[in-house]
């Protein structure tokens, strides 16, 4: 993976070739392609609320803007997470093994009740939610602003998740599974 933080996030997620991965808010970053490098026999889908970011990501991925879909090995869906319907992203699967959000502030700047309700519907049995933060190097100093892990843990626990926190250098990953 080209961006060291995405390599660390992928390691923290224990990505496997057959995983079905949903990324919340990939923006126009290369994250979907980087995740797909490890998920070679599964599926990676990005759900993004910004039409501009979706257009840029579609161009980067070689998906025609009119065909922004969740079908295929890599997909894009233009939607706000709180209003996302499961049928917009599931496309014949029973759920996602891993749901990733990188530097998505909704999980700590407010009570993400609606967002976590959608996540619950989208997780496959035994699946996990990974809230990852940081912009720097996993081996460097912690320099970027990140949420207090306790706040994330509190909100996730209130929503019925069991939480484990990982950190390295400038990176933080809160892993949550349903009780």
Descriptive notes:
With 179 residues, this protein is α/β, with parallel strands linked by helices. 32% of the residues lie in helices and 28% in strands. It has seven helices and seven strands; from the N terminus they run αβαβαβαβααβαββ. The chain has helices spanning 4-13, 31-38, 51-61, 86-89, 106-109, 113-122, 149-158; strands spanning 20-24, 43-48, 74-78, 96-102, 123-133, 161-168, 171-178. The chain has a seven-stranded mixed sheet, with helices on both faces. Strand 1, helix 2 and strand 2 (43-48) form a beta-alpha-beta unit.
Short descriptors:
179 residues; alpha/beta; seven-stranded mixed beta sheet; 7 strands; 28% strand
Give the gist of this structure.
The protein has 179 residues and is α/β, with parallel strands linked by helices. The chain has helices at residues 4-13, 31-38, 51-61, 86-89, 106-109, 113-122, 149-158, and strands at residues 20-24, 43-48, 74-78, 96-102, 123-133, 161-168, 171-178.
Q: Report how far the terminal alpha carbons are from each other.
A: 32 Å
- Beta content comes to 25-35%
Count of separate DSSP helical elements: 7
Report the radius of gyration as a whole number of Å. Answer: 15 Å
Q: Given the helix and strand composition, which structural class is it?
A: alpha/beta
The largest sheet is: 7 strands, mixed
What is the topology, as strand order, of the major beta sheet?
A: 3-2-1-4-5-7-6
| Low-confidence sequence ranges | none
Q: Give the mean pLDDT.
A: 89
| Series of H and E elements | HEHEHEHEHHEHEE
- Overall helicity: 25-40%
């Amino acid at each position: 993976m080209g961006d060291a933080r995405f390599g660390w996030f992928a390691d923290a997620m224990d990505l496997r070739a057959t995983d079905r991965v949903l990324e919340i808010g990939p923006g126009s970053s290369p994250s979907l392609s980087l995740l797909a490098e490890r998920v070679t026999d599964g599926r990676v889908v990005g759900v993004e609320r910004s039409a501009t970011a979706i257009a840029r990501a579609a161009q980067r991925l070689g998906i025609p803007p009119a065909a922004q879909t969740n079908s295929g090995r890599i997909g894009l869906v233009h939607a706000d997470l709180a209003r996302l319907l499961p049928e917009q992203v599931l496309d014949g699967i029973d759920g996602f093994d891993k749901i990733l959000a990188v530097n998505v502030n909704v999980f700590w700047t407010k009570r993400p009740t609606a967002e976590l309700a959608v996540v619950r519907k989208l997780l496959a049995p035994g699946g996990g939610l990974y809230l990852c933060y940081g912009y720097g190097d996993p081996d460097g100093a912690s320099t970027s602003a990140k949420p207090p892990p306790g706040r994330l843990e509190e909100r996730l626990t209130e929503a019925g998740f069991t939480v484990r926190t990982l950190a390295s250098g400038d990176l933080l990953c809160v892993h949550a599974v349903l009780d």
